[in-house]
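User: My instructor asked us to take a sequence, write out its structure as tokens, and then describe one feature of it. I'm not sure where to start. Here is the sequence I was given:
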Amino acid sequence: MKYETLHGVSLPKIGFGTWRIAGEAAPDPALESASRSALRSALELGYTHFDTAEYYAGGFAEKLLGETIKEAGIERKNLFITTKVSPSHLHLNDVLQSCENSLKRLGMNYIDLYLIHWPNPRIPLEETFGALNQLVREGRVKHLGVSNFNLRTLQKAFALSETPLLTNQVPYSLPEKTYVKNGVLEYCQQNDIVLTAYSPVKWRNLKVNKTIQSIARVHNITVFQVALAWLINQPRVITIPMSLDPAHQAENLAAANVELDASEMEILTGLYKR
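Assistant: Let's start with the prediction itself. The structure tokens for your sequence are:
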């Protein structure tokens, strides 16, 4: 496994996302069994970074993750857990309560990385970071970050955080380069902020792209692994794919060991320009 190391933290280049684990905005009982199995297999395969949120399945994703970790008997210190506070909960007291609720659902006494899920222009960022900084001082949260922040709001968050801002989690993939074009990736790389790419392989024509197929054949890997390898071969970029299928989970994790040369990286970066 490759790691991104900064601010005293070593983050796996590939983690496990839990969006749509056990449901979307609310729990889906039909998905519970498959979701438990998926989390169990991810732990067995060696995933150590798990990304969740209070919004995911109405908090049930956090609960399932915590229960599965406990059942697996894995020591808390060997895992890195990220969760997020929803944009409707960004007033000071709401942040503190949301964190407490997440800790209870996870069955843990601290969160490694706590993110603002989306910015909320109706609530001052100063108030939100007043609560977040307090949580770090109290030891309830180890590190702070944000998600879906544009350059201006990211810069403001960077200034307000009393400790180094660890990440901005955004959609980023071969065809989705909004946060490259708006300057966020460059700012992250210049300021030792990890860009966490979500939805890294979610597009329709990946399987039929001849260029990606050619690079996949050279390395004897899948086109999905090429897409993941392109992300994690970039400095200060990690990703959090999700799959319910243990075979796909293993495939995703193995992409961390794929080395793309400079010419391959350049060719892939040049795809899907618009």
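For the description part of your assignment, you could build on this observation: The longest helix spans residues 92-106. Try explaining in your own words what that tells you about the chain.
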